[in-house]
């Protein structure tokens, strides 16, 4: 009984560690997108931006002083691709045989 409990505990501990390893890049991506330009390249790294800013999203979606942005057209293309893929799957599903 104790051996089974310790094996289960070890398994859960391993799964938690692996989950943290998998989720860390997503955490880093979101926090970096909310940082100012100075905080992005700070050493040591700033883990949680203070204050968080949405100016990076605004510059990508609506342009800025840099060359023309592809934010909105890229969102439109991704949306059209998702819809067409869903419709194609819906159309082909009845022909599939289980």
Structure, explained:
By secondary structure, the chain is mainly α. It has a domain at 1-53. It has helices at residues 2-33, 37-40, 55-62, 71-92. It starts with a helix and ends in a 6-residue tail after the last helix.
Please work out how many helical segments DSSP would assign: 4
Radius of gyration over C-alpha positions, nearest whole angstrom? 22 Å
Order of helices and strands: HHHH
How many β strands by DSSP? 0
Shape: flat
Give the proportion of residues in helices.
Answer: 55-70%
Secondary-structure topology with pairs:
Elements: H1 2-33, H2 37-40, H3 55-62, H4 71-92
Key traits:
98 residues, mainly alpha, 0% strand
Outline of the structure:
This protein is mainly α and 98 residues long. 67% of the residues lie in helices and 0% in strands. The model has no long low-confidence stretch (mean pLDDT 83).
